[in-house]
């Protein structure tokens, strides 16, 4: 259980300004000023994806599930005459189970793209996708530390701001608005729209070749963002990749201009690269600027292969772990965290910046199908959770959805979301800046 405790403790130490030295004990043979009771379950010695039972307990008005404890009326923690605080529930085991992605590594269910599906998750089963439960567990542990040490423990902030927002833009398409949006318009009898888009394309500037417009929106905030470029244009097993060549002069120029404006360039690993180190390395070499991070196309993260692959390539971070079917917290955590290497039972050097919301999730026929008026009321509780725990909100908004020919009302929704977090005092950070801020903690 040592690797489990070390993994959770590492992240706990990056959330708060904790007493030093910090004396935490986990299990009966590890005494400390805070003693955390360890489960007697042998779950982590086996390879099953789901715990046998779930116990729910109230914490400050919220119902919190515990996966490795028996039902009991005992308080969360008690204090003895010597000032030692004993945490009565195994917060460490439950936090590790969710944060490490145990259910994905050992779960067998996959969708048509090889992804772990939302429907198979504990988040879907127990409906806590919009609650960052690991943050709740660590907040309970924080209060135990405060009681044991007799002092208030302050959260770590983001350049003095209460929470951070990472705006990210996957550049999948910038040459095919005339076809993707134009041909359906023609079939519906809208000849003028088709001709307008076709004429733009004929003049050498497709309606989705709009990265300067995206940059203008970011400047208005102002915010530095991260753009993930897709270096592969050939289809993979019938699935499309980019509709452009990243090595072409127009794209190279766009990348240089975005970099000059202070934005970060990331790798958008193509279909299949989540388990193909050689292909991902080839694609990395096509980008004209040093790259720190990756997000896989279609969020095709392979729980069994991707963590080691990303570490081998020396990438600092990934941002693929979000469910396309639903916004929220795939690993039940609203901060950057390190990926776990299950085969070697250790933490990797690669940070994960979990993806909380993707534009496609809001309108895709297989996903939520929300109207523009429904978006902010539905998203606000999730955003309030991130603010409560001083976390990071990661938003993916594709460049085509800044145009009138992508997601209906897409530009206004982006403005509404960013205006909301801006009104709450967020720090807008590139992904690498968010990682750097976490590493310093």
UniProtKB/TrEMBL annotation:
Lineage: superkingdom: Bacteria
Record-linked CDD domains: CE4_u7 (cd10931)
Domain DUF7033: 88-174
GO BP term, pick one: carbohydrate metabolic process
Entries under Pfam families matching the protein: DUF7033 (PF23019)
InterPro entries, alphabetized: DUF7033 (IPR054297), Glyco_hydro/deAcase_b/a-brl (IPR011330)
Protein known as: Polysaccharide deacetylase family protein
Organism listed in the record: Rufibacter glacialis
């Amino acid at each position: 259980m040592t690797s489990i405790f070390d993994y959770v403790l590492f992240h706990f130490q990056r959330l708060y300004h904790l007493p030093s030295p910090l004396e935490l004990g986990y299990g009966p043979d590890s005494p400390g000023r805070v003693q955390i009771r360890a489960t007697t379950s042998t779950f982590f010695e086996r390879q099953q994806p789901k715990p046998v039972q779930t116990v729910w307990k109230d914490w400050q008005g919220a119902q919190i599930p515990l996966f490795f404890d028996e039902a009991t009326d005992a308080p969360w923690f008690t204090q003895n005459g010597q000032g030692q605080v004993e945490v009565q529930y195994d917060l460490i085991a439950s936090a590790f189970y969710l944060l490490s992605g145990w259910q994905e590594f050992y779960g067998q269910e996959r969708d048509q793209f090889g992804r772990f599906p939302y429907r198979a998750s504990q988040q879907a089963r127990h409906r806590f996708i919009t609650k960052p439960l690991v943050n709740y567990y660590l907040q309970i542990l924080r209060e135990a530390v405060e009681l044991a040490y007799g002092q208030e423990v302050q959260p770590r902030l983001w350049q003095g701001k209460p929470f951070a927002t990472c705006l990210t833009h996957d550049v999948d398409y910038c040459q095919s608005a005339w076809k993707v949006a134009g041909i359906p318009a023609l079939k519906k009898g809208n000849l003028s729209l088709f001709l307008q888009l076709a004429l733009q394309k004929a003049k050498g500037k497709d309606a989705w070749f709009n990265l300067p417009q995206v940059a203008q929106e970011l400047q208005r905030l102002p915010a530095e963002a991260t753009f993930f470029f897709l270096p592969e244009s050939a289809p993979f097993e019938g699935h499309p990749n980019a509709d452009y060549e990243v090595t072409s002069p127009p794209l190279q120029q766009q990348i240089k201009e975005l970099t000059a404006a202070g934005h970060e360039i990331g790798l958008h690993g193509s279909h299949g690269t989540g388990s193909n180190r050689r292909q991902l390395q080839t694609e990395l070499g096509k980008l004209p600027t040093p790259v720190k991070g990756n997000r896989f196309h279609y969020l095709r993260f392979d729980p069994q292969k991707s963590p080691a692959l990303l570490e081998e390539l020396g990438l600092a971070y990934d941002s693929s772990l979000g469910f396309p079917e639903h916004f929220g917290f795939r690993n039940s955590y609203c901060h950057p965290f390190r990926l776990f290497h299950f085969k070697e039972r250790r933490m990797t050097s690669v940070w994960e910046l979990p993806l909380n919301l993707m534009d496609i999730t809001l309108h895709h026929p297989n996903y939520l199908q929300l109207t523009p008026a429904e978006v902010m009321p539905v998203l606000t509780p999730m955003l309030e959770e991130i603010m409560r725990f001083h976390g990071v909100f990661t938003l993916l908004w594709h460049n085509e959805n800044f145009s009138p020919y992508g997601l209906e009302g897409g530009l206004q929704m982006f403005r509404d979301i960013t205006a909301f977090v801006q009104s709450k005092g967020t720090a807008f950070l590139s992904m690498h800046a968010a990682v750097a801020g976490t590493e310093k903690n």
